[in-house]
Amino acid sequence: MRRQRLLLALLVVVLASGGLAWRYQGTLIGLGLRWYLARVSSGEARDGTLERRRAVVAGMHRALLMSRPPDAVVPELFDALTVLGQRMAAGTVPLAWGAYLYTGYFRQLIEQRPEGRPARTFDEVRAALDREAAFYSVGARPGVNGVRFSDVFLPGTDGYTKDEIEAAAREGRTLPLH
C-alpha cells in the first residue's frame, strides 16, 4: 500500500513537471540559450578569442541582411544577442521587435563607438536594451507564445519550397498563406 502511494505521488510529480515544462517551454528554451551563450562568452573571454562569438553574430547579421560587424564590437553585440535571445525565446519580446532592437543597437554602436570603446558590460547592454524596449513599449503579445520545442527540434512547416511554388504556378493554383 505504501509503495502504491509513493508511485502515485511520483506519477503526479512527473505529470505536473511535464505540464509546467510544456506550458513554460519558451522560458526554458530562453534560460538554456542564456546559459549556453554565457558559457561561450566566458570561455572565449578567458581564452582571448572571438571565434564562436564572431560566428554567432555573423549568423545574425546574415539573417538580418546586414554587413559583418568589425571585430571590436563583436563581444558587445554578442551580449546584446544573449539578452534579446532569451527574451524572444520566452515571448516577452516578439521576434520582429527583437530584430528591430538589435539593428538599432548595432546602428547606435557603430555611430557612437565604432571601435567599441569604452566597451559596455553585460549589465550596461541589458540596461540599454531595457530602455529601448520601454521607450517603444515592447512586450509580450497576447495569445502569442514564445519559441516552442517544435520550433527548435522539428523541421519548419510554415513555408513553401521553391518546387511547391513552381508547381502551384504551373497548375494555376494559389497557395494559402499560413
Textual characterization of the structure:
- By secondary structure, this protein is an all-alpha fold.
- The protein has one domain (24-171).
- Helix content is 69%, strand content 0%.
- It contains eight helices and no strands.
- The chain has helices spanning 2-23, 25-47, 51-63, 74-90, 95-112, 122-135, 149-153, 162-171.
- Helix 2 runs antiparallel to helix 4 (74-90), helix 3 crosses helix 4 (74-90) and helix 4 (74-90) packs antiparallel against helix 5.
Q: Based on DSSP secondary structure assignment, what is the total number of beta strands?
A: 0
- Roughly how many Å is the radius of gyration? 21 Å
**Count of separate DSSP helical elements:** 8
Largest sheet: none
The secondary structure category is mainly alpha
Unreliable spans are none
In one word, what is the shape?
globular
Order of helices and strands: HHHHHHHH
Strand portion, in percent?
Answer: under 5%
Overall mean pLDDT: 84
